[in-house]
Design a protein that fits this description.
By secondary structure, the protein is an alpha/beta fold. The protein contains eight helices and five strands. The strands form two sheets. The protein has a three-stranded parallel beta sheet, sandwiched between helices. A two-stranded parallel ribbon has the order 1-2. Helix 1 runs parallel beside helix 2 and helix 1 crosses helix 6.
Length: 163
């Protein structure tokens, strides 16, 4: 979504250092004034498609072509889009705020969303990385794994209670 909390404008400022890089935004515009600021800031580096139907061929094709996923938001529980990008093996640049480290562990580049220098350096680092091989994401985030872990957790609680 395009809104101040997602911090696209700061990302676009950082992208000035990388003139060939494009920010492709797929999602709703929740703040028209902020969208205009982003468009002014990013110029031809900022491309938005609006909302695309979930699991559509167009959306899957677009995601398949990404080099990296960037979310410099000022508050984030890892979004479904970030989790999907990680599952697809995309390089991840994401905010250090919130619970992102719990999900992505060492598989992402973390940035301070309030620091232009941090975002610029994060972009530099993530662009030099090899494509992620999704070492953690598929294993840890599939329902089959989640249910096993939840079951294990409840069993441990029961054992502790019975001791």
């Amino acid at each position: 979504n395009i809104e101040p909390r997602k911090n696209q404008q700061m990302l676009l400022k950082a992208m000035r250092e990388f003139p060939d890089l494009k920010l492709i935004n797929i999602g709703q515009c929740r703040d028209e004034a902020y969208y205009r600021e982003c468009k002014r800031e990013g110029g031809d580096q900022f491309i938005t498609f609006g909302r695309l139907e979930y699991a559509s061929k167009i959306l899957r094709s677009a995601m398949g072509g990404w080099e990296l996923f960037a979310m410099p938001s000022t508050l984030e529980t890892p979004s479904i889009a970030a989790l999907e990008a990680a599952y697809m093996g995309k390089k991840i640049l994401i905010t250090e705020i919130g619970s992102t480290r719990e999900y992505f562990q060492n598989e992402a580049v973390y940035i301070n969303p309030m620091s232009l220098e941090s975002i610029t350096n994060g972009l530099r680092i993530v662009l030099m990385q090899e494509a992620n091989e999704s070492k953690i994401m598929p294993r840890n985030l599939l329902w089959s794994h989640t249910i096993k872990e939840l079951s294990r957790f409840y069993n441990e609680l029961l054992e502790d209670e019975n001791d």
